[in-house]
Prior knowledge:
57% of the residues lie in helices and 11% in strands. The chain is built from 26 helices and 12 strands. Strands 1, 3, 6, 7, 8, 9, 11 and 12 form an 8-stranded mixed beta sheet that branches.
Amino acid sequence: MSTKLRGVALITCGQAPTQEGKIASIHNVSTQDLSSEQSTSSQGTHGHQVGMGTLALGALGIVYGDIGTSPLYAFREAFHHQHLDATNPVYALGVASVVFWALILIISVKYLLFVMRADNHGEGGILALTAMIMPKGSASKKLSFAVALGIFGTALLYGDGLITPAISVLSAVEGVKETTTAFDSLIIPIAVVILAVLFLIQKRGTAGIGRVFGPIMVLWFATLAGLGLNQIIQRPSVLKAISPTYAYDFFMVSPMKSFLTLGSIFLVVTGGEALYADMGHFGRKPIQLTWYLAVLPALLLNYFGQAALILSDPAAAERPFFKLAPEWAIVPLVILATMATVIASQALISGAFSLTVQAVQLDYLPRIKIRHTSSDHRGQVYVPLVNWLLMFGCIGLVVTFKTSANLAAAYGIAVTSTMAITTVLFYILAVNRWQWSKFKALAICVPLAIIDMAFLGANIPKIPEGGWFPLIIAIILLVQMMTWRKGRQLVAQRINRGERDINDVLDEYGTVAKVPGTAVFMFKDLGKAPPALVNNLKHNKVLHKCTLIVAVETADIPRVALEDRSTVTRVEPGVFQILLSFGFTEEPNVVEALAAIKERGFDFNLDDTTFFLGHESVISGKAPGMNPVFEHLFVILNRGADSAGRFFNLPNDKIFEVGSTVEI
């Protein structure tokens, strides 16, 4: 029997056992003292009560950076990639019509109306969605496959995180060509410098930069709207492209060419996944409010303005966005566009950091060094390894592909694949967890899947032209993530074979001496004796007066409230088992969690504590369970994993490691 410790009863490590038996629970005396704390924790994921306007402004700055910078290159690529005849008005009106309905159906309907309802306790994103459908207990093969699909979608997002900063910054800097060709040779170096500076400042966190994100993006979207509106006023007939008949005419003129053009038109919705992934930072309502009041009108005005310009001047199809502005405004527009693309890049980089934290918590990636850059916002993290890999990857893409047009050939396949996977996972969630009828779920998901597959099919020809790059990145990450997951399960199975019941071990060594201080044994299998504890009893014949066997679990929710974090069970006088639960977006800080228990009346001295950790040296052997190639890969990953002490935020001078060898 165990109960969660919510009261403030004074329970010391030396208290006598109760009459209920050898294992008894710590009982509550009062919960009133914690009422204020529980009230604080129930305010929601945003901490303090934040106004809707403030959240909407923040969403404008962070969430919509990617989709908000698509006008720089999306319309241009639609004409450039398939060499559409800009002198034919059917193409200009047709592209505008497809863009309009893509934004409505994919963003407004799919994500804002349906997918964003699938929140994991307020958190969104494909990994949070995957966590919601993870099989419990006896896993069915169908659900296991769905989880693997979700992990592949997660891996694809890293490819998106590489390409987005590169194409956004490069396309903004290329705007200089509108005024002079003197700086053509400097465009790539300038883009490289901007990207390098962007990644170098990541360790400082986004809190300071974030305060100016919103106002800059307000100016950016106002500029988008103003530039487009100016052209629409001169040629208001372009608004007739809202009718889907113009999209139909577009496909009828040249069906295959128009279909392949979808691969470029898709660039207008590439930020769709960011809306879902960033839901936990701002909430669904502020994101919806910002979309309908600011982002969607500005984007539509700009895209229709570009179509109107092409109708008037077909030559403008080469760079329609910068052609919208008068010559005197080009330089200020390039500066503003560069700032907007940096913000868009920041959102993707921060997303990659958050994604990594979630993957580590769910045990799909090895432990790596993670720094929290804000004491107020849990979601603001910095992952050095991911930061440097992204930096070298982005700079490598700029140097290799040289132009944003070339990069656009590689862009889209990863995002379309992820969007298609999101639709599949949403269907599984609706049927298995929400108990929707299959008819209802199919009625919603099949039309969405058809749209996803159309865009995905149009992007497939991009694979030889550069689309292979994000796919290779995703496949490498998928193999790594699934290998790590399987290897960790095998190591746990090998270790479990030699485990003994904690009561049996304590009975066997019942007469050993008690030494002062507190010993914390980090061991995940509660009810079993940690090997480090067994070795200490066997060889040293001693037991600390206060012995804590601490297990850390990752819940399938983003965050765990402080009052629900700890479950404490007394094994015998002075020996306790403690289960600490952390959400998959949280950093597992064991010292803070134990200190919180102490503050509630659990009387042990953290200053006089030693943390005992098991350190498994994994070797590849002949034991069944994994392909030898993957065994060697797991061994390499295990050697490179961050230490458990750093991962659990334990003080270095209080750690004692006990080693063992495990063959898989």
